[in-house]
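Figure S4 source data
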Amino acid sequence: MPFNIALQFEDGVTRVIPCDANELVSEAAYRAKINIPLDCRDGACGTCKCHCESGTYTQGVYIEDALTDEEADRGYVLTCQMKPTSDCVIKIPASSAACKTEVASYATKVSKINRDSKTTVSFTIEADRPVSFLPGQYVNLGVPGTQETRAYSFSSAPNSTELGFLIRDVPNGLMSTYMRSQANVGDTMSFTGPYGSFYLRPVERPVLMLAGGTGLAPFLSMLLWLKSNPTTHPIMLAYGVNTNDDLVELDALNALKAAMPNLEFFTVIVDPASGHPKCGYVTDHLSAKDLHDGNVDVYVCGPPPMVEGVRKWMSGVGVTPNSFHFEKFSSSTAGAHE
């Protein structure tokens, strides 16, 4: 069975290609019609040097002018000499356009719509083949009947034909209006992608996830992936919303917690009149100990003020995390989650 190799380009486009255990990554990319930087093919020039962010592999013969021992220790590889021994994520130092890579397009049908929430719509679309992406990434989803697209993170696990999304019901929003009052099961929808550098890295230490509103979607994808690929490191999710009506997917979170003994989560509502046990902002209910003296990877997805608020909170408690990954969104920008 081939390994999945995620090629992450500088412009945020990701292509996931199959690569056999005895196959060079450069040859697998070429077979997929992706022209990653390449020249000598003999491990001599260094043109195909990339960074393997996760996964295991073997390297063939190469000279130090092409790849130094120090670079190899830091995870740099020559794709003309690299053979995977697991799934891998490889950062390509070029744009997808420079590599003549077409963004993958998919035609799907709406299979489920949930309009129970007053402020949020969740829905599932069915693709004719499994869709590979990195948990946390997004796609540009076409609004039926228009030429417009909107960016949404998957709320479902990778490598499935069932693809879930969670969107904010924005007044007069193009996609949210369609999903709230017009969409029906069986409707055709299309999307391109996946995109984005906000995705789950290898879990090698505790993880702190902070979600604002429908910024919960990519974390659901990450947690579903972790459910199938368990880790013993602790995972904490802090999920904040504005009002009681905005609090969704609690059944899904409770089911994940029941299946994952290392997962803890709590919810926070900004509105002080909500009667919720925790009011205010998520950072009001975190402490320095949640940053594990810096031995933690922090992920934040929410509106820009939330992301900046988390930065200030970390600075205020005087702890710098091992890594800090974030995705900002609003109702008027790409990644709107509208």
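Figure S5 source data
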Amino acid sequence: MGPLRGAKILDASQIMAGPYCTMVLADLGAEVTKIEKVHGGDDSRQMGPYINGESTCFFQINRNKKSIALDLKSAEGKEIFYELAKEADIIVENYRPGVTKSLGIDYETVKQLNAGIIYCSISGYGQTGPYSHKGGFDLVAQGMTGLMSMTGEPGGRPLKSGVAVYDIGAGITATYAILAAYIHKLQTGKGQMIDISLAECGLPWFTWEAGAFFANGTIPQPTGWRHRVSAPYQAIKAQDAYMMVGCANQRTWEKFATQVLERPEWLEDERYLTNTLRHDHVEELEEEIEEITIQYPASYWISKCEEAGVPAGPINNFGEAVNNEHYLARDMIQELDHPVIGKMKVIGSPTKFSDTNVEIKTPAPLLGEHSEEILKQIGFSSEKISSLLVKGIVKQPEAVTG
């Protein structure tokens, strides 16, 4: 049983940030009911690639959840939402600010039904401020926060991160905020609203950059494959591939120079005496290092680094990463059996507990797969459920209904 067993969550979010948050909470044992549009459901269901018509994007971040397809614009649909909200501990939504109020499912409305509710709103720019009315997207946030101005090579076109860092970052930020509010509720009985901004969640990550800017006004520039502060801490070219080497302190640098590259004279070289000097002369240093490393394959140098206690590793593609023996040994790749997709792998949980379990039990649901089951749990009769299905207030796959 997971540590959040007993916690009930309504997930009225879609695409990535909110669903990632609720997936993490579901993995930790919370009971997550996903509320989807009757027509099309979560928008990520329309994002390929597909297997047998089912989106594998949706599949990856909606496991361990139940789905009810619900028309929230209808009076009867809203009443169903209210009944679910009365029993919930947490609600997560990522509508543009103002939409939940127009639908009648906003925090102030729900609080009248359930004073202890924890209501988490995830939006592009937050619920207040001059940009709150704008729609927010991961790439826009990457540009606005300065991330793209420091990603890529000097003088090149601004580059985005390889993954949706702010979508996932907002989901993670929402997760720890919800857990903090949940602890507060357990202690006091009081719920509250949580306001998460996609465009804000990444700013606290710029620690070194903030240190330099607030100290002397330094504007961080793109550093390509190199670290912003330490050297050598970067991608290094070997005979057959690039590899990562991280000399984050003086002792590691000394081991790298003497035991790995066998260049003890570098310890007396005035250009390389300190980390700051090495960083100032990083291009010269890199050239001298690669004159040596180009002579042998990356695996040779990684092995030597490991023997010397110097952090190093390969630069894997994604296929190599998910088949890495270490990740496999720690259950970071798991397999689920979906009724339409069939057997398919998912990324596991990076959280390991000594006394409780993180369980990946069920695949992402079909659209409205659990509509009838959920309605019965809150007291709806079979006749009432049939009426709601006929009127299109709720939806359920024919195979499940049959």
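The radius of gyration is 26 Å. The mean pLDDT is 96.
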